[in-house]
Every structure is written in C-alpha cells, then in structure tokens.
Amino acid sequence: MRHMVLLSAGLIGALALASCSKEIDKEAVDRALQDVNVVDESNLNSVVLNSADPNEAVSYFQRSVKQSPDRVDLNRGLAASLIRAKRYTEAAAAWQRVVDLPDAQSADSVELADALIRNNEWEKARKVLDTVPPTHETFKRYRLEAMIADSEQNWKAADSFYDTAVGLTTKPAGVFNNWGYSKLTRGDYSGAERLFGEALRQDPNLFTAKNNLVLARGAQRNYSLPVISMTQTERAQLLHTMALSAVKQGDVSTGEGLLREAIETHPQHFDAAARALEALENG
User: Fold this and answer.
1) What is the reported pLDDT for 281?
2) Please, what is the Cα angle at 218 between 212 and 219, to 5 degrees?
3) Domain 137-224: top CATH class
4) Can you tell me whether residue 10 is helix, strand or coil?
5) Is pTM beyond 0.85 here?
6) Residue (of 105, 116, 33, 37) closest to 82 by Cα position
7) In angstroms, rounded to a whole number, what is the distance separating the alpha carbons of residues 125 and 139?
8) More confident residue, 157 or 5
C-alpha cells in the first residue's frame, strides 16, 4: 500500500513536472516567435520606407500607427514617409507626435526641425534645435544650424556650423556647395568661388556647384569658364549661366557672345539660350 502511495505521488510529480516543462517550452517558443515577428516587421518597415512609392509608404504607416499609436518606430516611419512624399506640413505634425512620445530621442527633434525648415517655419525650427542638448553632435544637426544661421544673416555662426558639419561627414560636397551659396548671397564672391571649387573636388559631378561656381566668377566679371570636368551639354548650360550673369553686370555684348557660343555648343536645340539671345537682339 505504501508502495502504491509513493508510486502515485511520484506519478503526480512526474506529470506536474512534464506539464511545467511543456509550459516552459511553450513560453520559450512564444517568445522566440515574437522575436522573429518583431525582426520581420522591422525589416518590412525598412523595405516599405526605403523602396516603396512614398505615398504607398505613407498609407502603410498610417494604418500601422492607427493600430499601435504609441509605437515610436511606426510614428517615425510615417513621418519619414511624409518627408519623402514632400508632404511637409503633415510631416512636421508627424515628427512633432514622435517627439512627444516617451521613447523619443534627440535625433527625432533634429528631424522635426528639418521638417519645419522644409515647411518654411524657420523660427519654430530654431526653437526646436535650441532644445537639443549640445552633446548631440551630428552632421544633420549642424547642417540645419548653419541653414538657420544663414536665414538670420548670422554669418559668423553660419561659418562655424558649416565648418563643423564638414568635419562630421564623409561626403561634404553638398555642405561646401551650401556654404558657398551662403557666401554668394553675402557678396563674398571670391570666398564663394573657393568653396564651390572645394565642393567639386569632393564631387566632380555636382552640377549645382558647377553652375554656382560660374555665378561666383560672373559676379566678379570673370567670364571664362573654370577648368573643371563637364559634358558638352553642361558646357552649353554653363555658358548660358555666364551669359546671363554678364548681362546682369551690364556687359550686354559679352552676354550676347556667350549666348551664341552656348547655342553652338549644345548638341541639341538650346531653346532657353535662343530666346534670351532673341530678346537681347530685339532690345
């Protein structure tokens, strides 16, 4: 009888242990599946954000945020998608919602400032950047700081921020181009020319910098094209820019000659240059 009691107790214990083991295994499997789902969802979010049509991505993240409104990653995805779709007013509101979430980071405030600048809300952008701690030293933060300083004509601060931004990126061509354009608007044409040249040393294919370089030289009444890499079409376009700069300086005959050269250089019909030349010839 005693053996039967011990056997029963042992059987119950074994069954309990087996049940506990199954429960533990089930919990482990559930956790593993949950982790896999999170990874899969994260990958899907990344694919949608980077590859999909911007407005389709917006719709995807809008549905996701509606289901999980407190998920900071989904709110970030929506805000970034709205930027890609050039829906800047909505993007600014979306980034503000991200910033207001408990898990928001300093980088989110920088993105909010970027959205506000794109929406032409410069004062709000400056106030947002003022809340970002100085320890958050990123390329994007200082590039935006430079742009805001430019908008306020705080040239000393702008130069400092541009200089810092250049040191925080491996691809500074765009920063040098923006910095050069800042110098161009101040009337520092030689300084602008130097910075546009630096932009082209970093990226010889950056046509915006080529065009800006010609503008800086034209503003100094230097009407010769710089020695830079350019296609035949680009050469024609740069001659057109140089011609307009010459006309603006009052050197009309030089401008006419440059327009004729631009028309002859272009591999196809250069309508803009032809119309400009016709307007000059007709007075």
Assistant:
1) 87
2) 90
3) mainly alpha
4) helix
5) no
6) 116
7) 16
8) 157
